[in-house]
Write a structure and sequence with these properties.
Length: 255
């Protein structure tokens, strides 16, 4: 087997008509504003593409359309948080994220049960004042997201967000040098494979699955999903970069 760019592998995906300017994603939220819903969908997909700054701007536009939208505040709190590429070290940003989570909580009485649980989970991710050691907060958030996933096992966004909360506990450190899974790796894979079995085109499930498997003995397990991603999110930050062929990491080709 020869190694080729992961982006080149994704290039084979067929075109899918996007539901917004960045790609194909829709999560209905509690709002009466179509514009708020639209901006939220775009913001969530941008989060999934690791374009977090732009995601925040879209969630702010959602709030401009509907100031009572708790999930837009949730989106801001999520986008400002740590991810596998960027730990949350700026205490001003952490304080802003905490404030957004609390604003979502204050409005959550109007929300659906799954939204209420997501908002309760995001509130565990931050504290005021922000601590020097974030590890207990990150662990609390992962534990809270597990409970949301248990309560709503068929919700693909919940599953993907739970898996992301787990990989955030040990960024880029999922496998031993001998190729054995580390602490949370099997749970990440099982969660994402469950999501992809029911929702094979979920962009964040594909995205995190690629990262979770690329250093394993079988990175090609993500190949079929990777080939779909370019069509699902053709213009979405990190996901769009893959679609243009510039992603530096590689997985074996099955060709």
């Amino acid at each position: 087997m020869h190694r080729v760019s992961l982006l080149c592998l994704m290039f084979a995906a067929c075109a899918i008509a996007p539901t917004n300017r960045y790609g194909t994603l829709h999560r209905p939220i509690t709002t009466k504003s179509p514009l708020c819903q639209h901006r939220f969908d775009e913001g969530l997909l941008l989060c999934y593409g690791f374009n977090h700054d732009e995601a925040v701007r879209h969630f702010e536009q959602a709030l401009a359309a509907d100031p009572d939208c708790a999930m837009a505040w949730f989106g801001i709190a999520h986008a400002l948080g740590p991810n596998i590429n960027a730990p949350l070290t700026d205490k001003a940003v952490a304080a802003r994220a905490h404030s957004a989570a609390q604003k979502a909580k204050a409005l959550s009485y109007m929300c659906s049960p799954v939204e209420q649980q997501l908002i309760a989970a995001i509130c565990t991710r931050y504290a005021e004042p922000p601590p020097d050691d974030r590890a207990p907060l990150d662990q609390a958030f992962a534990a809270a997201m597990k409970q949301v996933h248990v309560a709503f096992p068929d919700d693909p966004d919940v599953g993907a967000l739970y898996a992301e909360s787990l990989v955030d506990l040990s960024p880029w450190d999922y496998w031993t040098k001998a190729g054995e899974p580390k602490a949370n790796t099997n749970e990440v894979l099982a969660t994402l494979e469950g999501v992809l079995q029911r929702h094979p085109n979920h962009p964040q499930a594909i995205h995190i699955y690629i990262h979770a498997t690329e250093a394993s003995r079988q990175p090609e397990k993500a190949l079929a999903a990777a080939r779909r991603l370019a069509a699902i999110a053709p213009a979405c930050g990190h996901l769009g970069v893959w679609a243009t062929g510039s992603e530096p990491r590689a997985i074996p080709s099955l060709a």
